[in-house]
Every structure is written in C-alpha cells, then in structure tokens.
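Recall the central idea of this unit: under ordinary conditions, the amino acid sequence of a chain determines the structure it adopts. In this exercise we apply that idea directly, starting from the sequence alone.
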Amino acid sequence: MKITRIETFLLKVPYTMGGPHPQFGGKPRSSMDILALRVDTDDGISGWGEAFGGPTAPATRLVIEQQVAPLAIGRDAAAIESLMTELARKLQNFGRGGPVTFALSGLDIALWDIAGKAAGLPLHRLLGGAARTGIDAYASMLQYHDAPLVEKNAAEAMAQGFRHLKLHEKTVADVAAGRRGAGEGVPMMVDTNCPWNVDEAIEMTHALAPYDPCWIEEPVWPPEDFAAIARVRRASPVPIAAGENVRTLVDFRLMLEANAVTVVQPSIAKMGGISEMRKVMVLAESHNVRMVPHCTYFGPAALATMHILSTVTATPLLERFYCTLEASPFGEALLPRNGRVTVPDGPGLGAEPDPQLLKRYNS
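Accordingly, the structure predicted from this sequence is:
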C-alpha cells in the first residue's frame, strides 16, 4: 500500500467566543485555523491528519508540501514506525520541534487513519481497545483578561452542561471571576502560558490557591526549563501541569525525570502524532503522572486524541476550546453534548470531512 499523494488544506473557520477575539501579531485572531492533510494510497484508501495550526500554519504547510511529501510519496503507508523514524532523522537538521515536527505529526495521524480503514477497525481498536465510549470534555476558555467576561462565560459554560473548566488568565481578579462563574466545587484549571520566573510563579501559585484550581499550567518561562518548573512544583500548594510545548519523546522523559509536573500534557499535532503520544502514555504511567493531553484542535488531531483517551484506564478529560465555530468541517463527532463527546466507532478516525466545507474554508 504505497503513498501516492499528500494534499494540504488550510481551513480558516470563523468563530465566536463571547468576547473580543485575542490578538496575534497585532491583529485579532478572527478564525480557527485547521491545517489538515489527506494522504492517498494506491489501494484507494485515504487518511486524514492534522498538523498544529494557528499563525504558524503557512510555514508548516510549506514543510509538508516541500519536504515531507517528497520523502513520503512512494513509501509503504503501513510501515508507520519505520517511516516516521526515518523522516524524523532525515529532517532533523531543519529543527526538532516547530513546523517540522508539526508536519510529521500530521502525517503520522493520517497514516494511523489509513491503518484503521485498511483493517476495517476504529483507531481505538488498533490501540488496544476502548475502555469507554464517551469522554468528559472541559470548556477551555480563550483569553478574556476581563473579569466580568470571564465570570459570564464561565457561568454560560456550566449552563451548557460542561462540568470542568479551564481559564487562560494570569491575574487573581480574573481567576476569582472564573470561580464565581463556575461555582464552588467545579473542577477548574488555570493555564497561564509561561508568564513568570520561578519566584513570581511560586508567589502566584499561593495567591491563586484560595480559588481551588485543579492545576496551574505552564507557570514558568521558558517552558523547556524543567528544573525551574520542578522548583515551582515543590513550593506550590497547587498541582503543576505542562507539556503542550514539549517537543520530543526525549524531552518528555527529561521533564518527568525532573519531577516537574503532576499532570503531563502532550499535544498530538505538535510532538509527533499518535505514535509518539502512545510512548508518552507509557512514560507517564511509569512515573505515576496523570496524562491530560493539550487539545485545541477541531479536526483529525482532536479525533485522534479522543481515540487515545478512550483506551486509558484513568478517567480521561478532553480539552475543548470554548467557542462556537461557524461550521464544523469534520462533522458532529467533535461537538460536545452536555459536556461530553462520543468516540467515533467507524474505521480509522471514524469521521470524514464535509467536501463542501473543505472547499468553503480552504485558503
């Protein structure tokens, strides 16, 4: 089963989020950008993958089209492990992490989709079998930096049936507003996106502790300073989480060996796809660390994360950006109902994109 073609789709889907859109590069982020790719084979089976999108998507798209595709076309789509290892070695001079790893992640997801379709089995069956068919999704609110909006949207998320909440805020006032909106006892996480040095982070963990966060995420700059994160964890009254910016399996091992986190958060479209996330699962279990993946995706990467989470023994949580897309290119499978998603049971990832929506939103 040879790879015959790799085609990319950069889908820019308008969305609403209950407030002004966050700024990126001086401009509002007016769309959720899904960088999808389709891998075709000579057996007539096609698979869908997703590389990390956002402002870096055009660069990653070029890597897929100009570096990854020429190396992958003509190769055996079923030899996932050997092909992905070979491509990572050949492309290592161009960066371990960033657009190169994002591109390889998308290819890996597509190859697993092909493997499931070839076997006539859902992905979770290839990964060991599902322990559950439904997964709790948590409302991962975007940045508001406005206490009344934080409180309003947190309350609305609870009214929509979500039972878990994440804030992307950095101040005591905004976190306190999130707690008021969510209510007492609702599991609430706080993602701070790497703003502080060690001393500042320790001070802020104590300042935020009265609002009962389940964890504080990425409290330290730079995110790869695992020794610094470990210092914060030792002094913090609140559990510490990180991992969305960890680039490789070796980096995850170093982070866990440093005892830096209570919760590890691999991001499937950023760190190597399904193949590498499976290995992070084993690492996390061996270090007795909970895995709750980073998942700010609306395409194949979200579907792949759902399949993986369905196989874990611990109670899983799926991250879901708290926003409303104008349309869902990969269908109803990705839309939470009363705070839960249902794991698709069709072959491979279990969902195909709507051709009309691909055409409408591709840029």
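DSSP finds twelve helices and 15 strands in the chain.
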